[in-house]
Specification:
The chain is an alpha+beta fold. It has 11 helices and 12 strands. It has 2 domains: 152 residues, 2-Layer Sandwich (60s Ribosomal Protein L30, Chain: A); 158 residues, Phosphoribosyl-aminoimidazole Synthetase, Chain A, domain 2 (Alpha-Beta Complex). The N and C termini lie far apart (70 Å).
């Protein structure tokens, strides 16, 4: 009589243990002095130090269907970078310093090398912002995921002094909008991009250059999500509000930081829309309004400041560019 085992059910505990040991080694390199007990305990511990009235700021997200592009290209070392940078940006717009991060990986069948690449990317991004990869979960879920399918999500926690929270509450009409360019699609709009390029039917298109792209389509789509924290940390005292342009684009993300009754007018002639967005629009015959609702269209972060602070901010962050202004009408004009 055959005896059922966990392995025969699709879960390889030996591979899981090997992956766990590798992950602990990778994550341990990110730990800051505030982490208590290292990585591998049931819960990650962090001793908050040096704050008077600390407020914790949390965010969770995923790279979305960019994961499908990763599978089609076989590239997994930047997915963790996408994940961390997206979450860190979301935490940072309130003025918070990212302090620790946790990840979740779900797979149908455990591929140790793939998992190592995913975690190594997250660790790299954490190290670049002084954030500890304090723990996570890797789940082998046969029957939920099939073949090489996988999912990845992350959770960032930051801290800010209560009297230094940036929430846009003091934004006024006439305040200036400063833009910072994105590195590409970041982590949003990939379902539309996949449909436009018919990638499920012909993934080989990812290997070639199309239109005015300066590299392959796959490389363009896999460009990592940019992190703005190191660049903008020095100018936090000069900023009234920040909007991370993610899903929903400028039209849906700008209102999240504006006081009731206010809106924003953007001058889209002030920045160059990257070729990848033009290619998507032309290939899929996508209306411009839809493009701005789905993609960041080349602007990854918008800062709001008093007109008197523009010169100071631009001197510290030269790539900042004036792209619009706050208006007294509750609408977003692009």
């Amino acid at each position: 009589m055959n005896r059922d085992t966990y392995l025969s059910a699709g879960v390889d505990r030996d591979a899981a243990q090997a992956a766990k040991e590798s992950i602990i080694d990778i994550a341990s390199k990110t730990l800051q002095k505030e982490v208590v007990g290292g990585v591998g305990f049931f819960g990650g511990m962090y001793e908050l130090q040096g704050y008077n009235r600390p407020v914790l700021v949390s965010s969770t997200d995923s790279p979305g269907t960019k994961l499908r592009i990763a599978n089609l290209t076989g590239r997994f070392d930047t997915v963790g970078v996408d994940l961390v940078n997206h979450c860190v940006n979301d935490v940072f717009v309130s003025g918070a310093k990212p302090i620790f991060f946790l990840d979740y990986i779900g797979v149908g069948s455990l591929d140790t090398k793939k998992v190592e690449d995913l975690v190594a990317g997250a660790a790299k991004a954490c190290q670049e912002v002084g954030c500890s990869l304090i723990g996570g979960e890797t789940a082998e879920l046969p029957g939920i995921y099939t073949g090489n399918e996988f999912d990845m999500a992350g959770f960032a926690v930051g801290v800010v002094e209560k009297d230094k929270i940036i929430n846009g509450s003091d934004i006024l009409p006439g305040d200036v909008l400063l833009g910072l360019v994105s590195s590409g699609l970041h982590t949003n709009g990939y379902s539309l991009a996949r449909k436009v390029f018919n990638l499920e039917a012909d993934p080989s298109v990812l290997n070639g250059k199309i239109g005015n792209l300066d590299r392959s389509l796959g490389e363009s789509l896999m460009e990592p999500h940019r992190c703005y924290y190191p660049l903008l940390e020095p100018v936090l005292p000069l900023i009234k509000g920040m909007s991370h342009i993610t899903g929903g684009g400028i039209p849906e993300n700008m209102p999240r930081i504006l006081p009731s009754g206010l809106g924003a007018r953007f001058d889209k002639s002030t920045w160059t829309v990257p070729s990848i967005f033009n290619l998507i629009q032309e290939t899929g015959n996508v209306e411009e309004a839809e493009m701005f609702r789905v993609f960041n269209m080349g602007i990854g972060m918008v800062l709001v400041c008093d007109p008197s602070k523009v010169q100071d901010i631009c001197s510290l962050v030269p790539e900042c560019m004036i792209i619009g202004e706050v208006i007294a009408e509750q609408e977003i004009i692009i």
